[in-house]
Amino acid sequence: MKDSDAPRGPQARHGPLHRGRDAGGFPATRTPAGVVRSAASTRDLAVLDARISACYACPRLVAWREEVARVKRASFREEDYWGRPVPGLGPADARIAVVGLAPAAHGGNRTGRVFTGDRSGDWIFAALWRAGLANQPTSTHIGDGLELTGVRVAAAVRCAPPDNAPTPQERDTCNPWLARELALLPDLRAIVVLGGFGWTALWPVLAAAGYPLPRPRPAFGHGVEVGLEGPRGPLTLLGSYHVSQQNTFTGRLTEPMLDAVLNRATEVAGIAARE
C-alpha cells in the first residue's frame, strides 16, 4: 500500500491554526496530560495527525515555531509557513518506521511535511527512494507527488525547537504522540533511529508498548542493531547518524552508510528490494 499527501486533512492548508480547534474539528491539546489522553484515545492515523497538528503543550516550542513562521527566512518570504507541529508521513501498513529528531525551522516547520524543504530531507528521501520505499528521490512541498511504500517517517519531537535542541521535558511531553503512532502500525518490524536524541526518546516509548528492554540500554551508534521481542512479535532497532548537515557535510555520514542501514531495515522487515 502506498501513501501520498496531496493536500487533505490538517495539512490541506497553511497559515496560523485556530487555537481552539484543529482542521479536523478536534479540541487543541494544551498540557502534557492532555497529550497523554488525546494520544491514547486515537484509533486512526489520520486523526492522530490532526491532533498532533493542534498541540500547544510546550509553550517554548509554540512561541518559537510561530515566531519563525511570522518572521520567515528571506528566501522564503513569499511563502506561508506551516508553523505548527508536524505529523508523520506514511501508510498504516508500514513495516519500517524512520524516527528523527524534530522539524527544521525553515524545513518541516515551513512546508508542513516531516523532513521536507531542507538538506536533511534531501538526504533521507533520496535514500528512501534508493531503497525502494519512495516513488521519487525528492520531497519539496505538500502535493509534489511523493508517495511512500512500506515506511512511515516521524520525529521524536513534532515542533521545531530553538537551536535544534528540544529539552528533555519537551521530548517526554511529545513521547505519547510517537508511542501512539507506532502502536497504529500493526505490521511494524523495524525502526531506523536517526541520531542519539531519537535513540534516547524511543526507549520509554517501547517500554510503554510492552517491549522488554535490554539492561543496560544499548549505546547509540551508527549501524547498531538491537532485536526485541514484544506483544506484536519481533522488532529490530537500527541506529544511524542523523542526516544533519553537520554529519553529511563533514562526511561523518555518507550515502553508502545510510543506504546500508535502510537496506538492512528492508531485509529484516521482509520488504523486497527494488528490481
UniProtKB/TrEMBL annotation:
Residues 1-31 are annotated as: Disordered. Residues 87-262 form the Uracil-DNA glycosylase-like domain. The keyword Hydrolase applies. Keywords: 4Fe-4S, DNA damage, DNA repair, Hydrolase, Iron, Iron-sulfur, Metal-binding. GO terms for molecular function: 4 iron, 4 sulfur cluster binding; DNA-deoxyinosine glycosylase activity; metal ion binding; uracil DNA N-glycosylase activity. It comes from the Bacteria. One of its GO terms (biological process) is base-excision repair. Belongs to the uracil-DNA glycosylase (UDG) superfamily. Type 5 (UDGb) family. This is Type-5 uracil-DNA glycosylase. The lineage of its organism: Bacteria, Bacillati, Actinomycetota, Actinomycetes, Geodermatophilales.
